[in-house]
Predict the structure.
Amino acid sequence: MGGEERRFIEEAFSANWISPAGPHLRLFEEQLSNYLGIKACAALASGTAAIHLALLVLGVKPGEEVICSTFTFAGSCNPIVYVGAVPVLVDSEPYTWNMDPDLLEEAIVDRIRKTGKKPGAIIIVHLYGMPARLDRLISIAQAYEIPVIEDAAEALGSEWFGRKAGTFGDIGIFSFNGNKIITTSGGGALVSNNQNYVEKARFLATQARENALHYEHREVGYNYRLSNICAAIGLGQLKVLEERIAQRRKVFNWYKARLNNHFSFLNEPENVRSNRWITTPVVPGNNPEITVNRIIHALDKHNIESRPLWKPMHLQPVYRQVPAYTNGLSEKLFKGGFCLPSGSSLAVNQVERIAGICIEVVNN
Ligand SMILES: *Cc1c(COP(=O)(O)O)cnc(C)c1O
């Protein structure tokens, strides 16, 4: 926590706004919109709920196909199934580890050829805080007139040529789950420059309750709004967001300075800022998974938690049957990469200790 969260929660208690409505919620939405430079925002119960509503707002229908990055967390992909649509998974490119524009175009053309219909939406993920190749991805989506949802759950504050990730697509989504760069304990947001999209999302998130004194419902809605208490936490967290990003970028640079001779690191393309949510080195050479395993175990012996990278969706048992356009990169990264402890409160001597253990493993 940053320090002011308690004060905002106290305010919410004093005013008795303990519900999914209230002044802190409105202020959180306003401040987040201002920070991102976007017209409208609906604070929601989770990032997953935000993607679910984004698909509904964009009119994705059962049986339709939706393209999604394969190298991501399941929360990006599961909402496609919630709306009865079929995920079509697309692999990564090496400069950002995110959706490969050439493969995206190949997938669109092939899906049109095979099904006679273009996909209903494209979900572009900005993994580990690194913005995807937005210039090319967005122009391909526009050429085929397919709406884009940016999954910026891990990329709050990341920038592509000075503009915030999550503001390029038709809809952007964020997550404030406990593991993200700032948190409301659990929460998310849907943002757009199209006010109607955000209003529709807010309507669906409030059980699709019509504007009438009695409870009138013409369609099926959801209970997806963020609580005012959680928004109060969010107000405190927004105050320290830039500090957190600076700290995570520092942590990345500390690791890189110490480990650059042993591992490869994902550099920022020119004019791109990653929030460096997590530092993710990759082991070079053949059979890197052996080294990754040894590092994770060696760190664990010191009571230090580390993990493999996200397991691509096309390798997950639940998504093995869906169409996938792959090039081997996400699979290679899954085998050879790992997540180092990257919390905003890490000190340089802790990073040194962790780096020392990693180097010991590769030297043995
Ligand atoms: C965390 C995350 C989500 C889901 O957000 P929740 O708030 O946990 O539902 C979606 N996509 C990615 C890439 C994430 O990291």
About this structure: The pocket of pyridoxal-5'-phosphate is lined by residues 46-48, 72-73, 75-76, 125, 151, 153-154, 175, 177, 188 (CB under 6 Å). The chain has a mean pLDDT of 97.
